[in-house]
Amino acid sequence: MDRNTPTERAQGTSLSESFERYLQDKGKGRGGDGGNYRRNAARELERFAEWAAGGRGAEDWTGIIPDDVDRDPTFEDLDERVFREYARHLAGDRGLKQNTVQTYYRYISAWCGWCVNEGYLEAHYAQRASAMAPLPEDDGRKPGDQQAWTSEQRHALTRHVDERARDAVEAYTTLPEDTDPLDKQRARYAALKAARDRALVFILAYTAVRVGELLRDSNDPRRRGVRWEDLSLEDGSMDVYRKKQQWDAASLPDPVISPLRSYRRLMDPPTERWPVFPTFDQRTLATLVQDELTDRGEHPDAIDEQREGYARDLLLALNEDIRPPSVTTDGARSILKRISDAAEVEVDHPKHDYLAPHGGRRGMGEVLVRAFGYTVAARYLDNSEEMVRERYSHIEAGELGDVATEALNEIDSIPGKNDKISTGN
């Protein structure tokens, strides 16, 4: 029997029984339990299973199995008509944007293809023309992936965090010697937070590193956030775990070096394994400090007394080398939203009312493409030249428009070039 020919047992398998194996194959990290794709695919597969069982959709939708049958949907119930109906459900009943409909359907289609390879289905029904017919046309844009920081926005944001960090550091370093210890700690904490925010904004603005390569991703255990050991300020480089699933060096241009160097001096991390961008979330740090000191054999009363001697648990963690986790990618978005509001940066975008992290990368990409062309930009962005050309095609279109305008001006300005021949009448 052909490996891809469904067996009777496979056809009688419920849809949900295949999900975990599929997600493990597509997941990242040990055991395949990490990664954003796994999380998003799991969500859409569960929605598809609920819809197939009649739990989602229009009020009169009862699912893909006959009303007189009491069981969960199985693979024998699937054919191209089912996927056509689900495409229609996504396109109409849920009121999603056309690109989002395409994205959600692709998760189901990818699972369908896997099921063919694994012997659950005999054909890739989801990719048949009749199944995909109800889907709206894809305009080629990814939802929320079009924001690009302009030069004015980049300068406004970096200028704001730079001024704020300078003021905070100066306020801390110029305190009188007889300042109360807790007040001095509060000033150091404020300076650390401002210096961290400045370093983060400068890296996102000038390196074009993906935020998922820089910070912790709670859905991917391998992305734990960059540590000081990953940075070489002398060489102007930073080791990051790239999207292509391997470690690689990213460039740190001159504007980034000074903020990082100043921030490191202020933090004075106990070891090189400390995160460059630790979380400042008080609840997280309080739990971390209490648990670590308890593991070290400290009595609860002694822990409370020790914590009372510090204005913030982060400062205690620094002093006791209790390594906190890195800020998450979601945390970075919250930080940038707060800073964008404080800097009063004007943002006109349908999805983001602040300067989102991916906008810094895309904005830097525009700068590089305009200045050095697609090949150099592709190397800096860690992308293929083909993808960079596709993402920044509007730049080439604009430049070709300028060439056309120049040509028209030159040709049209030649006297008599386009004059009609006089007939003497």
TrEMBL record:
SUPFAM superfamilies xrefs: DNA breaking-rejoining enzymes
Basic and acidic residues composition-biased segments: 18-31
Signal peptide (residue range): none
A GO BP entry: DNA integration
Molecular function as annotated in GO: DNA binding
Residue spans of biased composition, Polar residues class: 7-17
Keyword terms, alphabetized: DNA integration, DNA recombination, DNA-binding
Region (Disordered): 1-38
Domain annotation Core-binding (CB): ranges: 10-116
PROSITE patterns: CB (PS51900)
Domain of life: Archaea
Name the record gives this protein: Tyrosine-type recombinase/integrase
Organism: Halobellus litoreus
